[in-house]
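User: structure tokens for this one?
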Amino acid sequence: MYEKSLKIKLSALGDNHPSIAVTYNSIGNIYQLQGKYDDAIAMHEKSLEILLSVFGDNHLSVANTYNSMGTVYCFQGKYDDAIFMLNKSLKISLLALGDDHPRIAATYSIIGGIYYKQGKYDDAVSILKESLKLKLSVFSNNNHCTSAPIYNSLGLVYNSQGKYDGAISMLEKCLKILLSALDVNHPHIANTYGNMGLVYNNKGKYDDAIAMHEKSLKIKLSTLGENHPSIATTHNSIGSVYANQGMYDDAIILFEKSLQIQLSSYHDYNHPNIAVSYQNIGVMYKNQGKYDDALSMYEKSLKIQLSTLADNHPNIANTYNQIGIVYNFQGKYDVAVFMFEKSLKIALPALGDNHPFIAILYNNFGTLYNNLGKYDEAACMFMKSLKINLPVLGDNHLHIAISYNGMGMVNNDQDKYAAAILYYQKAASILVDAHLESHPELVKIYDSMANCYDKQNLHDEAAATRQKSNNICYNLKQIDISYQTSTPLIRQLQEAPAQDNVISPLFRQQSQPVSNASDNDIQSHAQKNHDRVLKEKQYFRAYVQALQQGFCKNKVIRAMYAGPQCVGKSSIMRVFTQQQLVNLQDPTKIANQSDKMVHLKVYKIKDRTTHHLHLIWENGIHEMVQLQYENLVKNQQLSKSMHVQSKIQPLYINDKHKSDFFQSTETTKCTTDEISTLSSTPIISQTDNNSFLRQCRDFFQYYYPSWLNKTTDDSEYAKLWDFGGHSIYHVTHQPFLSGNSIYILVFNINQDIDDRVLTRGGHLLNITYLQSIQEWLTSIIGGNANQDKMTAIIDNDEVEYSLPIVILVASHGDCITNQQERIDRFKKMEHDLISKMPRYSSNIYSSHIVFNCNPDDNSVNALIERDQCSLRLHVIIKSFVQSLPFMCNRVPIRWYIMATILHTPINNRYDEMLSTIFNRIRATRVNKIMTLQEIQSLAKDIGLYESDDELIAMLSYLHDLGEVIFCRTSNQVGIIVTDVDWLLHIFRTIIQLQDCSSGNLQMQSLYKTACETGKISTKYINHVLSPIKLDNKTKNSIISLMENYNILCKIKSDNKEDDCQYFVPYLLRPDVKLFDLSEYHVSDKLYIGYEHHDIPYIPDGIFYCLLSSCLKDWHNSNVKLYYQCAKFYLTSSHHYIIIKKSYSHIALQYCYQKLDNPASAIIIQSSVQTSIYKNRPHDIVKEKLSSLINDRMPKFKGATARYYVKCNRCTNLTFIENNNEPHHRNLVQCQNKGCNKLFESQSVHDWIYLNEEHRNNILKECFDIIASKLDKDSLFRLGVKLNLPCKDIDEIYNSNIGTYHKIYQILTSWQEQAGQQADVNRVIDILKDINKNSIAERIINKLDLSA
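Assistant:
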């Protein structure tokens, strides 16, 4: 309508008519109501421009526009701009109307409202009173309706100051005036009832608050209808009252109702009031511990605020504050600090240094720093808050109580109990003076004070303080002070719903509920409270004993789903854990770079129900503590019966009774003598003892509430892992595998074993199902050092198995419906595996289970079949779990506590702040990757360290469960990764499956080069890891870890300016073409490997580690990589060494360039032969392969690596006997059964005997130099050093031949004795030992010249 009016007026009156200005002003007012503040200002500025040009600077119409602009600036949080505009308006009005006009009073009232928003409460009261004085002087009637808004404003200011009685008095005056002047159903009367409800809510009089809001709601519904925004405001206000009473579900219902009204009435989803509703819902979710949901709401609120409000609006600061509170509860302290700092950065310039909201932020900083153990910083923040609030709010405001309680908490945590009590007393006194003597918060403060008294051995004072707590509980009749609710003391005061701005204080000790107390029950309840305190002390005592002596049976084992990619591992796991199948499910979260790399579930062996691992650990701790508690009570009763004083003595640590984990086999039970000794013999200093007990108490206070109603549970659990099967990632599996796990190996029954692996996209990979399964089996079984066996009874059949256990399971049963065909295909797979890998037969259990995991087939028969398969697999797993030696191990309960700290995030189960006991340690002491020394230091500092051996045993145990990765590095430093998924994500970010779709052209080029060459640069690593945001120290640790596992290898470059490169063979694509050797002389292949019955298969992981290991030794930056092949260029001798994987062997070749010049060709040939002789690369590769097998496949440690050549007759490989030296050096006898033929081998000529001939020529030349230069006196020393018999040396020395021939004969005798082991380098070392350095140097120069 206004826009239509404007259009008409513009055409009729022109651009500069005062009527146009009025319309602009009216449109601006509408925009203000819609929350479109920038548009409103634009309209008012247009109006102002017209009015100034027509009327000049001092016209009342100009004053009106300034007034309107000031109001908009106020809504935007631009309070200084608002004051500036209002003062302009006031100046004009004073000139035009005089000092005593009602309009002047109205402007004063608006300015007072802004002072109120700025937290300048005294200034606000002063100017509001001035406004009231003017009103009363103008209107003889003290109850004139224009005075009502001022009384209302004064009431809101007094409310913010905590002067609740004064606030009620002002609002009652306002209400009285309005009731006399207006209809009883007028909206102004409803608003006044609403404001009175806010005051009663803050005062803790919730029934009165509800009554006021219901009166307000009744009026609004009758006059405004159900969908008016004001109705939404009242729903929010009632929700706030419910929230303060801990009735979060009821509050959420009302907040959501309010939100729906706002969404339907504003027609603009970006209205600031909608942001308020989102924030209120977020606060409720936060109070319920639903932190992710809370953050989602806050983000919605923030998005609206950033789009509608100025960047420095206080409401935005408040939202950042709320987000910081959530992150604090989650233990994400760094993010919380960041959010609080953002909030403070906005709030300080917007509100000033002394605004109460700034004090609230300082309180929140204080709580955060206290959680981090930064007690000095925490105390500083609480004192800053007090410094702001005391002069503004006075001594008795609830904000002051919050700060005092925070100071009590800080001092309590530092064992400064006297100071803590003083601050707790101040906080309690404020609550009592504010008539909140029955508030639940006071119960918590009294309990905290009582605990401090107990710690000072002031038990009478503690009892008296607890009695006060009991009296409050009695007065409340029935109260549930649970560990899940904590009612904040302070709410932001405004007609819109309260906003939770303060982190709830940490109250360590909390009273239990009192139900249906009668007037005669006070003494009885006090006795019960005394018994409760005594019981808690006994439990704490039992906990300390259990921590020192307590072992519980291991209850958890890891069960890993393994196998080729896209065979249905995830689907089988979902069926097994009774989850819904997903159609076209993506590969396990690796290929698409999602957040989770491994699917995890923990299920109970007994009934297949899923559970949380940290709760299982808590149960284990509880069982041991309960046992100690029962023994303690039993022995105390025994002591009483023997008339022995049973008073609880001070608790000390006793090293004498610490159990040996490696020798204990049964749970330790305390005898009476042991308990007596424990309570009376201080082994360490009193200071250290107190520190240890305080650490114990912190953990105990987290666990204890859950023990009161907990029953023991002797169940076993399996932690299920669904690992990715992509062949490109086989090398990354090694750090995550364990010999103390059960493996479920899945294969596709619809595919033959020699078929190439088929992806979900229908692409055939360059690896067969057999090769993929061999990769898995060799990594799983070969990587386990355990040579133990176990006996399991399945289907009444007792069979012995080797560890680890691999259960063979099939998928895709829906593709083969004929049962007999399923059986036949399963048996064929079983037969092929055993024939190809006989060494593994004792590890594999063939289940004959075939799962139908087709998500489209939900017929009754399919569901029954799935359930039967799951049940069958469950029975098999259960049989093995109950028989495994690993499950019989005894686990110290401190391991469970340490595991919780290192890995498991704590969610809110009891009190939000108690859970931060663990998160606080994690935030300050635990990193995603740590050294063994850091873990040791942490364990010592929190009282969970016994010895280095036990610490290593604990880390190995957690590694077996997949909770951490424990890598024993070559330098024995030890690396521990506490976030397994994070590590796997990093590994697989570097070794990507997909094309590089992001980054600039240079990065995409680097990725393409990596896929073609297997080399990546530091620049590329930094790029792909940039989203993970690793600091340099962490990044270097990760690279070191990957180098330790030979996942990548650093390439040393002679050019220091070159970007550092790494060799990552797994990046190579299978379709990269092999090199062209047509222009090279190529040797025949020499194979290195093992006998089939020893090691049937060399996995890709070992092969690529072999390439990396060779690269480290050869420092060869010119290496060229191809799929399962590498070509190393040796510059000094101008030839290549080619290393290629050939199924279960390593094939070697060397090649050198063909030259047209015969003389040059002979020189190159001689150089290559000398290099092969001198460097013996085949021996290097053989030794490295043996070393890798021993290190990474300890199951096969000691197996003998041999040289093999291909038989010309049967085409199979046969090993070369070391003692097989036929008259024709190139003649080899085949060792394969059914062949045994002699054949000529070019490989033997190229690698073995050709080298020997060349070696003999080199030795003769060196012998000639030595014989011509060495003196006769050194002959005997040379012979002794060469280990020749003294008799032979004497015969040569005393012979009639010359010195040259004597020395030459000494050397040839040694050569004959050493055989193929005769090495000229040995002679060089001996010459240096007998001080013949010049001769040694001549030989060295001769060898270099020959090469």
